[in-house]
Design brief:
By secondary structure, the protein is mainly β. About 0% of the residues lie in helices and about 50% in strands. It is built from no helices and twelve strands. Strands 1, 3, 6, 9, 11 and 12 form a six-stranded antiparallel beta sheet that branches. Strands 2, 4, 5, 7, 8 and 10 form a six-stranded antiparallel beta sheet that branches. β7 and β8 form a beta hairpin. The mean pLDDT is about 90.
Length: about 150
């Protein structure tokens, strides 16, 4: 749709933003595999491509998708060797790894983020996963976190 000033809007253009429905408390400690973070509240989902029950975005068409997350952690544990947060697409996993042991005590709040332009085919998926090496199950994901994306080209 073009307006009088030439602005273009596409009401079914794939775009979404999801946030946790509540704090995700006490992230699991070192399991056998990564754990999917499910952000259960959609702020918007213009084409209905994000599943808030599974935390998975499914590309409706082949293209380049801008995907990003901001995760605000609370109560990080200095006994953790490292945290991995990944944006996992059908074609590639994009990982952020960090060691929270840079201070002398558990950190009250820490924010991590990632932004990537991902090549996705129709029906490819994207989701957020984490893995914690060691420590205790005390770290929480705050409701100020988000996962979002949109079709660029």
């Amino acid at each position: 749709v073009f307006d009088a000033n030439g602005h273009i809007t596409k009401p079914l253009q794939p775009a979404f933003q999801a946030v946790p429905s509540a704090d995700i408390e006490n992230l699991n400690v070192s399991g056998a595999s990564n754990t999917t973070l499910v952000f259960g509240t959609e702020r918007f989902d213009t084409n209905g491509d994000y599943n808030n029950s599974s935390g998975i975005f499914t590309a409706p068409v082949t293209g380049k998708y801008q995907l990003q997350y901001v995760i605000r952690l609370q109560n990080t544990d200095t006994d953790v060797t490292s945290y991995d947060f990944e944006m996992v697409t059908s074609n590639k996993a994009y990982k952020v790894r960090f060691d929270p042991d840079y201070g002398d005590s558990d950190t009250a709040s820490l924010t991590i983020s990632l932004s990537i332009l991902a090549d996705m085919d129709a029906a490819d998926t994207a989701k957020l996963q984490y893995y914690q090496f060691g420590g205790s199950a005390q770290t929480d994901v705050d409701t100020e976190s988000y996962f979002s994306g949109y079709l660029v080209a």
